[in-house]
Amino acid sequence: MDHLARPTESTRDRSLRQRAATVIPGGMWGHQRAAAVPAGYPQFFRAGEGARVTDVDGNTYIDFMCSWGPIILGHRHPAVDAAARAQWDLGDCLDGPTEHAVILAELLVETIPHAEWALFQKNGTDATTACVTIARAGTGRRRILVAQGAYHGAVPWCSPSLVGVTAEDRAHIRTYAYNDAESLRAAAEEAGGDIAAIIVSALKHDLGKRQELPDPAFARAAREICDATGAALILDDVRAGFRLDLGGSWETVGVRPDLAAYSKAIANGHALAAVTGTERFRDAASRAFFTGSFWTGGAAMAAAVTTITELSRIDGPARIEAAGLRLRAGLAWQAERHGIEIVQSGPPAMPLVQFVGDTPEAATGEAFCREALARGVYMHHRHNMFLSCAHTDAEIDRALEATDGAFAAVAARTRRG
Amino acid sequence: MDHLARPTESTRDRSLRQRAATVIPGGMWGHQRAAAVPAGYPQFFRAGEGARVTDVDGNTYIDFMCSWGPIILGHRHPAVDAAARAQWDLGDCLDGPTEHAVILAELLVETIPHAEWALFQKNGTDATTACVTIARAGTGRRRILVAQGAYHGAVPWCSPSLVGVTAEDRAHIRTYAYNDAESLRAAAEEAGGDIAAIIVSALKHDLGKRQELPDPAFARAAREICDATGAALILDDVRAGFRLDLGGSWETVGVRPDLAAYSKAIANGHALAAVTGTERFRDAASRAFFTGSFWTGGAAMAAAVTTITELSRIDGPARIEAAGLRLRAGLAWQAERHGIEIVQSGPPAMPLVQFVGDTPEAATGEAFCREALARGVYMHHRHNMFLSCAHTDAEIDRALEATDGAFAAVAARTRRG
């Protein structure tokens, strides 16, 4: 498989891990914490280009994580990076915003049907937290309804971990079951007059669980409850935004939110987040206090303008879906041919591949990914993967050569028992 | 004053403000919200270089805000930007961290006496919030003692605004008076066994108030209370970090924290934040969950390594202090000569200039800054200002020509008044 390769020795990665173990808690934090990286996987990376990433030992892989979502046009997209560079060459972090803040806000308002304004930040968590604050400011209420197991960020009100979190951090958070309109109605009723918002993910993409697209009836119920009670419908589009539909991921089910949170793919890897909202919440958004030292930086906003413009020009979501469908069809056929039962879930642009009868930790999935990695393909066994516009037919077909070998290895393992 | 100039017409700024009024709540958010920008000040910027910034209408100013702190070596420092560019040219946001995460963590551990580990984020608020979470995780307690009026970020537990904030967001926050050891002791006693942390700013720099350096006796009391109770001493060094002392701002008073939050100047304008901590909190830091989509990006970390290395090589804090002292001496002499009583407070690197007898909104200070702006100098009347290594004697002397005119104008106004 030409220059895609997996080394027998990952010398530099091992040395960096040893050094990190001394100076970084747990060797790395968050998604990337050393304990969470599957055995045999590289932890440290050096470069990316198009659909490929290269680790610190010089091994190049076809990348199905896209940096956990941000890369949507391909690593180091020339036009996007040129836009960022034009501002970097003038200065990025200045005493106030650049014109790109206005140009980008105008572009979002033009592109996203519900959006009548936008504001910008750095992290997805900044955006989801701001949506909650704006919803509370706009409604004068407190209760936030969140789907059980949904990921909305990494601060106390929403973190998947309770370490260091107090009960009061979640005093006004109540849960419902995603795609279950009845449970949502019950949670809204229980909240009574104190319901500030319902927050929904674009789809159900809980770690390690089969993904579910939003049920249109559930989405409509969420909208109806908000309309009836005056609560804000918050769409957390951080993970899926711009990948499924440039107008927002719930355009696919015909339901529009009052507030939406974006980040990840908005600037093809440049650090940026955005909140968009309707006229009704403009005043609340202007009264609440949001700021960050680097939030007015122009380079990431210029990158976002180019990213969204380019996605629109080439119909990025359709391209990414086609790439995902090609991968899905190939994997399905390969699994069948090797006598392995798999479940592929989620939108083609954000696939999850699971093995029927696998352990809760997805041991078979992990073994499959390790075999794919050895053949030059970087996948994930429990977190949804991401495709990009750089996943051409040729790249998908190349990846499928690797996965065919990985399925064969898993089948052999299964036969050995 | 050669090419430093102030236009009679700020055409482009006005046009951007009009457009922003439609698509951005309040015309801009946070620090930069349109309502907070003094009349006559530009809101939108185009470029920076060394100690100067240029607004969208092409007017260049000697910059005493340094992008509200991040710029410490000067705008577009060539070595820092080259380090970032080397990683950008390979790809910034990849599937995992680059080697720069390890190199930077090692450098912080080497540079900051209390630091035995580091982790990285994007916003100052990310870092202060993580410190609180780590302190709670490490102590199993909840109460956090915060100085009245201190700024520690822009999320509900610490935001200066209560808009959209619930009472529970601050359930375990109690206040003390900065530099008042007795009030700190009383707050600690009141917390009883439930004290997780005392958080302190590097100095008292509350908006619009005379600044206060930390009283060594107060700093020692904070350390003693933490040692006696097992609480974490958190130093919020986001605003002052690397400007006063490369080892942390409380090295100046000989007191070391257990956890510290950095951001702003750490990478000379590249978006980055860091938490450093002692061995005692390493396990808590590895158990708590922190993550962000762009937190492993290598370019800002490479920029930080170069920033800190360069600050160390040239003794940046000493240089910045010398520049601040030159400015302070010049302003003091000018004020005296114009018969105007001013108070200059805070460290020379982070000065605040106030006019005796001014209104609570600092109307005279604002008038002074507007006059300075008209003469090519960008200052702030209520928020502390920032100097950088690019503020050479020549730049300071140039700025003082402008402030002399500004004092004259204020004196004339006072005589008329």
Automatic annotation (TrEMBL), chains A, B:
Signal sequence segment: none
Needed co-factor(s): pyridoxal 5'-phosphate
PANTHER family: GLUTAMATE-1-SEMIALDEHYDE 2,1-AMINOMUTASE (PTHR43713), GLUTAMATE-1-SEMIALDEHYDE 2,1-AMINOMUTASE 1, CHLOROPLASTIC-RELATED (PTHR43713:SF3)
Annotated protein name in UniProt: Glutamate-1-semialdehyde 2,1-aminomutase
Transmembrane segments: none
A GO molecular-function annotation: pyridoxal phosphate binding
Keywords: Pyridoxal phosphate
Database matches in InterPro entries: Aminotrans_3 (IPR005814), Aminotrans_3_PPA_site (IPR049704), PyrdxlP-dep_Trfase (IPR015424), PyrdxlP-dep_Trfase_major (IPR015421), PyrdxlP-dep_Trfase_small (IPR015422)
The family this protein is said to belong to: Belongs to the class-III pyridoxal-phosphate-dependent aminotransferase family.
